[in-house]
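Lab meeting, action items carried over

1. Structure of the three-component assembly. Owner: GW. Status: complete.
Input record:
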Amino acid sequence: MFELKPMLSALWRNKISALLIALQLALTLAIVSNATVIVQDRLEKIARPTGIAVSDIISVTFMPVPVNYDMASAVAADLELLRNMPGVMDATVTNQIPLSGSGSASTYFTEPNQEIGGENANYYQTDEHFIDTLGLNLVAGRNFTRADFDVIGPNDTYEPRVAIITQKFADVMFPGEDAVGKFFYSGGDGKPREIIGVVERHLGAWPSWSKAGQVAFYPLLVTGNHKRYLIRTEPGQRDVVYKQIEEKLAERDPQRVIHLDTLSKKMAQSYVSDNVMVKVLSAVMTLLTFIVALGIIGLTIFWINQRSKQIGVRRALGATRANISRYFLVENTLIAGTGLVIGMAAAQVINHFMVNQFSQPALSMATLLICAAILLSVSVTAALAPAIRAANISPAMATRSV
Amino acid sequence: MIGYYISLAMRSLRGTPILSTLMIAAIAVGVGACMTVLTLNYMMSQNALAHKDDVLYAVQLDGWDPNEAADTANELPWQLTYQDATALLRSDIPTRQVAMHRFGFTITLDESEMRPFTADARITTADFFGLFDVPFLFGGTWNADADFSPVQQVVLSKATNDKVFGGENSVGKTINLNGEPFTVVGIIDHWNPSPKVYDLNNNPFADSEEIYIPFGLHRKFEIYSWGNTNGWSHSNEEGYEGFLQGESVWVQYWVELDTAAQKEKYEEYLTGYIRQQKEQGRFQRPLKFALSKPSEWLVLNEVLRDDNRVLGWLSLAFLLVCVVNAVALLLAKFLRKAPEAGVRRALGASRNAIFIQHLIESSCIGVLGGLLGILLSLLGLGGVRQLAMGRIDQIASMDWLMVLAAIGLAVLASLLAGLYPAWRISRTNPSIYLKTQ
Amino acid sequence: MLKMHNIRKSYRTDTIETHALRDFSLQVNEGEFVSVTGPSGSGKTTFLNIAGLLETPTGGQYLLDGEDVSSLNDRDRSRLRNEKIGFIFQGFNLIPDLNLFDNIDVPLRYRGFNAKERKKRIEKVLEQVGLSARAKHLPAQLSGGQQQRVAIARALAGEPRFLLADEPTGNLDSLMARQVMELLEFINEWGTTIVMVTHDPDLARRAHRNIQIVDGQVSDLQHGTVGAAREIA
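Predicted assembly:
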């Protein structure tokens, strides 16, 4: 009933046009499926839990103007001021801003005086308020106390005595063991650092780093020519507080330059290239599918116009409207199916190239099949309107000349 | 005859407005997407030092961890240690040489209402301006002895001078950096190479620095780099001096070697330097150093990232689909006009004449699609600029070359698309269209 | 003027070879008005297409104006078609989106005349067919007879020596058909050789000479070269 054989021979006579549609769909599938895996990969990366209350945090960087500046007292006074501001939940001092793409890392060992086989971790110099300020979740051990906190100069040699680390770093350093109470060491050094607590998760300064999530925190203030604060506000209060901070800090001490950012913005900047990839690829996929659909509509209309007399004859010979529509839809499905099968092979070849040359993620069969199914439905949908129109061609066309 | 064909083409396009719009849109979107990405890639691949590509070299030495090579493209640390940089500065082989790194200062002015602000600074030796061809508006650089002794002089960028001194010749005036007085010795003209080939460590599309400070001030101000500082060993010495004499790399180093002989001599010198350091227990890895031209440096630092290349290929594939689409639509359109072509053949048009007529119709679609494509790529670049949050403002713009390339690409694409349909229509037997059906 | 000797033309599809013309020989002299008749499928149109250089024969010799055109390339054939041959069709075959002026302009463009010369010629032939006032009209705005007169004007604009007409009155009512026929006779009197394919025996009789094509061969009674009588399926 599908008149498959005459349909195939009709297609054969129009092989170039049919081939062009199939080729378009093949290329589109190859592009769209490969773009989809990249988009998926980047979206997953961006959506990784940070462990941080990102949307409520403001970061402050300040640089004092005077040469001999009492950084330690300034930090103490600023934090006191910030913590007492209405709308502020907590504030802490830090050497780096999380998710900002700028920070410090070091190599650590489980034994003293080692030089090889260490593990990398991003490290913070902060105080006992960091857990509440960042919104971290302490899963084992205890937080720092004021007694753990030290202040040193930028050129002082100093090894911290205690540290809190992330679960991820703990798992790397002491797989399968409870890290609390264990000691770890900096490279070529014999001074032990005791792990007093473990936080569930914290992505650290570089979200794109291969070791992102391996983080250590030390209760320490290193005075230098600039310092940073993190301020956590009550939910919804961030923008109100943001407007007041610079003024309040400048009021307390005008002899400095203050720079504010929201953590949301810092995070967005860190993910900017991933975000560009996601948006550009999505736009390309949408446009591509749209263009192919328009092409299919255009060609189906042309095809039907060309065969309107033939359709009239079929109608005159007793074909129902449904028969006519179905003919064109089945024809379209045949062409699209062929194209998509070719496209699946092409997608695999291109993905192989993408993986090897540009270290992009591998394409799974499931993704490929889903993309193919979507394109097939787009193709059939595009052919639908012209096919229904074809069914409306009058049987009188058969007797009309030209 | 071409004019006749063009007028026929325009008439034909007007005759089938929907199909023509579809084809023009397909080409425009393809060209727009392609040119957006290619413009970005093209701008990212610019070499601001191309005119000195044969004489400038970035210097890398391998004094890294004996147990593990540096984690860079050529397994050499990107930067030098302070002690190596200051040692190399003593060589008189290079015509010019620069040791430098990023830093930042607060800027204030005595007896002024100006609000303090922070300025990006470059701590550098005096040759910076000559080596990188930085043009001076007023004054000039500091004396070379300021590279080794603390001299509080400063060169301002044009923008900084405009901001602080209202654009006047401020040579001889004083500004305070981190509260210390510095004398202005020069103001450079607008200079903002992108990519920032001389410093690719962080964002290669960042703006140039706002102030330039002599290299001899490290000890006096205890200056740490605001760029990357990477280390592998712990220093035995205490304090800032310990940092300076340590194995952390944080100084960027460039030399100008004008002749092959000079380069050869410098390579011998570097070999000798590393040998001598090995005797003192440093440089325990196999003897290795690199001198990279600016063009090589850009490649080595992967300024054009894998993501950009992926997008480049993708956009070309996109254009290919648009071309295939246009082939199909043109074929449909031309075949519908086959009777007219038959009449023209009967009236004396040769196959070639029919072929050229239809090819010209295709290229008209190409030109229109190209013009529209330029608008779309400007939109696309605007969109990418927004998405990139200001990181690539400098490069997300089209120059004339790219505008021409866009039209060229569109015409090429549509000629390619028109080739088969035009050939097909020109080979069709005219007689079948002349009979009344 | 036109001399065909043993022309053969066969069409080949995947499986069947059809002979449209076989050992077809014919001579038409300068200034003659020849009508061609024959049953449907006898090869009239094939003859016309070969005579008009739209198709090449599979074999045999074709001399046009003394020149052997059997083996010319497309460019030269197109040039000859443009300079020496005018076509008139049953369906008129005017280009629908060009106005009368531009329709007549088509062959002159391919001829390479300058704008002034083209304008002069177009105005002249439009006047000859009595349609000067309608130069800016589109074909669809004219009656069938007027359209056919435009088609004749277009055929004449290049001053061809040889006019090929394929059922020129087939789509017209008898009054218009007579007008068109009179126009053709008038043209012929001014020296243009005409070969006209027609179904209409009355029209065929008005020509100087009638040729009948039967099953791909000439059955020219006047000249007694009767082809092999064959049954037509």
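2. GW to write a short summary for the group page. Key points so far: Residues 351-387 of chain B form the longest helix (37 residues). Chain B has a mean pLDDT of 90.
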